[in-house]
């Protein structure tokens, strides 16, 4: 799996998941329960992961809707 999005904004994550669902792209949200460690102040970002084969399409969908996209490092 590859990271397609990293953000601390839960509304961006929700929109991105909805857009990916609309394109039948499977996703997995990581770091959801990290708020227990940070004290629920929202400083640790959540990551949205997709299959390697869906990465190109997922990035295109998010970019088309002006959402931030994680690029390869």
UniProtKB/TrEMBL annotation:
InterPro entries tied to this protein: DUF2007, N-reg_PII-like_a/b
Domain DUF2007: 1-65
Protein name: Putative signal transducing protein
């Amino acid at each position: 799996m590859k990271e397609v999005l990293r953000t601390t904004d839960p509304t961006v994550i929700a929109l991105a998941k909805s857009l990916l669902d609309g394109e039948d792209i499977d996703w997995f949200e990581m770091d959801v329960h990290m708020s227990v460690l940070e004290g629920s102040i929202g400083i640790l970002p959540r990551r949205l992961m997709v299959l390697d084969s869906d990465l190109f399409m997922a990035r295109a969908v998010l970019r088309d809707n002006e959402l931030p996209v994680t690029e390869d490092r």
